[in-house]
Amino acid sequence: MYFLDASLAQQIVNRTMAIIGHNINVMNNQGTILGSGDPHRIGSVHEGALLAISQNRTVEINAAGADNLQGVKPGINLPLHYQGEIIGVIGITGEPEHLIAYGELLKMSAEMIVEQANSLELVQWQNRQQEEFILQLIKGEHRDMTHLQSWATRLNIDLNTPRVVAVIQVQDDNAQTTANSLLKQVLNLLETPSRGNLIAMSSMTELVILKPAFLDGKQWSANLESQRIDQLLKRLPSEMSAKLNIALGHYFPQPTDIHRSYQTAKETLRFGMQMHPEQSKYLFEDYALLVMLSGLKDDWRGQQLLQPFERLIEQDSNQQLRKTLTAYLNHFGDQQACAKHLFVHRNTLRYRLEKIAQITNIDLNSLNGLLQLYLGQAMLAAK
C-alpha cells in the first residue's frame, strides 16, 4: 500500500485550493513537500510539517515564526492520519487566525481523499492477486499445495469448490485496445452478479472463467452450463456478442486438475472456431474426440495412428478415396448405404475400398482396422 504519494498529494492540493483560494502544501511523514500550489516548493523539506509530525498536533506559524524556520511561510500545518498512523501533513499558507476555522475541515477532506484512494488501491491489489492466482492455477505448474492453499485462503477462495473452465475470446479486426475494452465490458457483466466466478484476463483478447461446476448444487451438467452461456450471450449487445467466442471445457472432479479443464476449453475453442466459425458457443462434449486426440499429436502413438491415413493422402490427389472413406466410416461400413450416398455403383465402391486397403495396409472388414483409420482421420483434423 502507498498511503500517500506525489500524485495523490497534488490531487489533494488541487481539490482543496479550488475551495479556499489559499496555497496548499501536502508533505509526507518525513516533511518533504510532495504537492503544492507553488511547484517550486515541491521536493523541499518543510520544518513546520516536521513540528506537526513530531508533536502530532496542529502547528500555527505566524510571520515572525516563519522567519526562524527553513522552507516555511505563515500558515497552519495539520497532521494527516490514516488507520491511526501519521502519514503526512497538510499546510495552508496565510495568516493563522484566518485559517484555523476551516483547517480541520480541510484536514478531514484530505484524509477522506487518502482513504478513498487507498481503498481503491486495496481493491485493485486484491484483484491483481486473484488474477495472478487464477493464472497460476490454469498453468498447472504448482507443486507446493501448502503454499497454494495458503494463497487461496488469503484471497478467500475455496480450492475445494468444484469448478470448470470457460474461455472467452474476442475476434476483432481493430486494434487490441478495442478487444481489451470489449473484454472489460464482458468482465463487468460476469461480475454482476458474480455467482462465484473466478475471472482473469489471460491476454489482451482472452478471458478465463473458473465457474462453479454444480449449478443445481448436486452434480455437473454440461447442458445446464450451456444454458447459462446462452443467457450470458443474450445479455450482451448484438454488436458485441458477434465478436465473441466462448468455449466450455471438461469438468475434472479433482481441484488440482483445473488446468486440464482450461486446456480442454482452449482446444475446444480452437476446433470450434476452425470447424464452425459461424457459431459463437462451443462445448467440449461436441469436440471431445478431437480434443483428446490433439494431445497425441506430438507423441509416437499419434504418429503411428496417422501413418496409414498419411499414405492415403499421398496417393489420393483428387481426394476421391478420402471422401469415399469418410462416407464409409460415417455409414459404419454399410456398403449399400455408402454407395447410395456417393451416387456410385456398389462395384465402384468395392473397387475404391480395395484400393484404400491396399494403400493403407488396413483391413477394412475388421473393427480394429476401421477404428484405426477413423482415429487417424480425426488426428489429422486435430493437428
UniProtKB/TrEMBL annotation:
InterPro entries in UniProt: CdaR-like_regulators, CdaR_GGDEF, Diacid_rec, PucR_C-HTH_dom, PucR_C-HTH_sf
Family from the record: Belongs to the CdaR family.
PANTHER family, sorted: CARBOHYDRATE DIACID REGULATOR (PTHR33744:SF15)
Limits of the Putative sugar diacid recognition domain: 4-137
Official protein name in the record: CdaR family transcriptional regulator
Ranges for domain CdaR GGDEF-like: 141-270
Residue ranges constituting the PucR C-terminal helix-turn-helix domain according to the UniProt record: 321-375
One Pfam family matching this protein: HTH_30
Organism: Shewanella colwelliana
